[in-house]
Design a protein that fits this description.
With 129 residues, the chain is of the alpha+beta class. The protein is 39% helix and 22% strand. It is built from four helices and four strands. α1 runs antiparallel to α3. The radius of gyration is 14 Å and the shape is globular. It starts with a strand and ends in a 5-residue tail after the last helix.
C-alpha cells in the first residue's frame, strides 16, 4: 500500500477527483462531493468526502477554513505510480500558479506518523481509515 497526501486550492476539486477516479475506472457521486463542499459546520465529519474502491481510498477534507483542501489517496501498489504522477502534476501546477516551490516527487507516507490523515482524524476526533 502507498499513501500520498497534498493540499490544494479548492477550485480544482472536481478536476482532481475526476482524474483520480479515471485511473481506478470508477464513477463517483458528485452530489456527495458537493454535500461535503457545502457543509457549513467546520467541526462536522460531513466535511470529509471519501471514495472507497476495493482496498483503495480517496479522501478529501473539504473543510473551507482557508480555501485549501486536503487530499489523501491510499492505493495498492498497482495504482500507486499513476496516483503519484497525477498528484505531483496537480501539486506543481497549483504551486506554480501561486509562485511556490515545486515538489520533485510525492512522498509515500503509508505507515508513517504525523501524516495529514492523522491530523485530519485528530481534528474531527474520528478514525477515517
Amino acid at each position: 500500500m502507498k499513501q500520498y497526501e497534498m493540499y490544494f486550492t479548492n477550485e480544482y476539486t472536481e478536476e482532481i477527483i475526476d482524474e483520480l477516479t479515471e485511473i481506478f475506472k470508477i464513477k463517483y457521486d458528485k452530489s456527495l462531493l458537493h454535500q461535503a463542499i457545502n457543509e457549513k459546520d467546520k467541526s462536522s465529519i460531513n466535511n470529509i468526502f471519501i471514495i472507497n474502491i476495493d482496498e483503495n481510498r480517496i479522501i478529501v477534507d473539504c473543510n473551507n477554513r482557508d480555501w485549501i483542501y486536503s487530499l489523501i489517496v491510499i492505493s495498492t501498489d498497482c495504482f500507486a505510480d499513476f496516483v503519484s504522477e497525477i498528484m505531483m502534476r496537480w501539486d506543481n501546477e497549483i504551486r506554480e500558479e501561486y509562485g511556490q516551490e515545486l515538489v520533485l516527487c510525492e512522498q509515500d507516507v503509508f505507515g508513517k506518523s504525523n501524516t495529514l490523515l492523522e491530523r485530519i482524524e485528530e481534528y474531527y476526533k474520528q478514525k477515517i481509515y
